[in-house]
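retry 2 of 3: previous attempt timed out while embedding zinc ion. Reduced batch size to 1 and resubmitted. Inputs unchanged:
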Amino acid sequence: MSHAGRIIGIPGLEIERVVRRKGIEVWAKPVHRPPCKHCQGNGLRIKATHLRTVKHTRQGNQVMTLHLRVPKYHCQECKRYFRHAFTGIRPRFRASEAYRLEVFEAHDGGVTQRKLSRTHQISPATVERWYQHHIKQKRSEGDRRYCPRVLGIDEHFFTRKKGYATTLTDLKNHKVFDVQLGRSELSLRRYLKALEGRERVQVVVMDLSETYRSIARRYFPNAAIVADRFHVVRLINQHFLSVWKQHDPEGRKNRGLISLMRRHQWNLRDEQHANLMQYLAEYPVLQALYVAKQRLIRFVLLKTLTRKKASIKLPVFMKLLDELAESPLRALANTLRSWLKPIVAMWRFSKSNGITEGFHNKMEMMTRRAYGFRNFENYRMRVLAHCGWDGVINRV
Ligand SMILES: [Zn+2]
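retry 2 succeeded.
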């Protein structure tokens, strides 16, 4: 590599002139004539030369622009023509690979499109295009992936116009497996049908959603359906809070009380517990329901039980549900009864969709950084780049 080439990072260049104005402008041409790209012959003639301008890295806070003299060669042996190819600059691209990578990495690390469009003198749309190009390239190697054995399925909000999306998580490897637009069987049907390795999925973890349950039965025929602890706790709290509202609408608006009611009993300090008990003493029915709720939550949080232990717990749990079915929490009791098997399966198991929830937060941050997405495929690519397949592929 020539001295100049070493500085610029592109081998085989001879620098003719450097001008510093607003940016750094470098005029350069190839040092050597290459062998013919078709026949490897050496008898090349230059037929014409044209000038090509490419953006190439930033030095300090200035963008370096290369003005390259590009010879068009004619091979004396095979009589064919071709243009000089520069290492690190692809044909027809207006920026070098190094420059594009710089933009990708900055954007990937959190620099906004708007900021990059200022520092790198490209449009925000170009930032997005380069970003997509880069991750698609990374992606192409690992596109044929098999379903994870332990799958989490959950919905999240995409846009007001396009609605909700479904997240499929590889719970074993802590990765997003995929995101798909829609949350109904109809909108996911095509995708699910084409999914490879559906029959080897062993466990599907989900919230208590009928749609996802019927999807799991249909498309993952060998998987056990396991309720998601995280969602079940939330559901119990929701039902409890709405019953509370019926008993004491005023108390239900008290933020301090709400926080005490929501928390697990064992997380309360002594004086907090005393305050709560004092309040509940005025509402005997509510108090009884609160006690039942705490018992319920203890059941829901059981995990990694042996089959034997689970079978001992089961009748006690069912009795509690029977009691609740006669109480103002009957709707909750009915839901839990209809999900009995997935809930009991949860006791034998430790994974939960809490991981997925974490990914949803990450996706939301990502969306904000990009000032929102309109194109779902762009969004999907980015989710997979951030939370997805890299690790999965390495492990498979
Ligand atoms: Zn040739």
